[in-house]
From TrEMBL:
Taxonomic lineage from the root: Bacteria, Pseudomonadati, Pseudomonadota, Gammaproteobacteria, Alteromonadales
Pfam family, one: DCC1-like
The protein's name: DUF393 domain-containing protein
Alphabetic keyword roster: Membrane, Transmembrane, Transmembrane helix
Segment forming the signal sequence: none
Species this protein is from: Pseudoalteromonas spongiae
Residues passing through the membrane, by range: 78-98
Coiled-coil segments: none
Protein transport recorded as keyword: no
Listed InterPro entries: DCC1-like, DCC1_Trx
Length: 115
């Protein structure tokens, strides 16, 4: 099983970032649009909110940790170790989650509207 990154291809920023990672990664990662997958509604919603990565062993890495897993496979990976220091990790993870939630709400609005 290859490392698989699940992302929101309808998000312009996400798509630009993934296009860059595709160039840098070669064959090390597979990138899949969440919208093209057959996930249950709640799982799809969760996966659209933050980046998800399933590694070659089948373990899931979610949100900031998914980014770290991706970064650490490249020369810029050292940055993620700086962000992993406990106090700094908490702060970066908090802001990532706030940004991700706002991005999701701006893009998709309320879930009831999606029914």
């Amino acid at each position: 099983m290859k490392n698989t990154v699940y992302y929101d291809a309808q998000c312009p920023l996400c798509s630009k970032e993934i296009a860059l990672w595709r160039k840098l990664s070669g064959e090390r990662f597979e990138f899949k649009d969440v919208h093209s997958q057959n996930f249950a509604r709640q799982q799809r919603t969760n996966m659209l909110k933050v980046l998800h990565l399933r590694d070659e062993k089948g373990s899931w890495h979610i949100g900031l940790n998914a980014n770290f897993k991706l970064w650490r496979s490249h020369p810029i990976g050292w940055i993620s170790y700086c962000f992993s220091i406990p106090g700094i990790y908490w702060l970066v993870n908090h802001y990532y989650n706030v940004w991700a939630e706002r991005r999701y709400e701006k893009r998709y609005g309320c879930e009831q509207c999606q029914l």
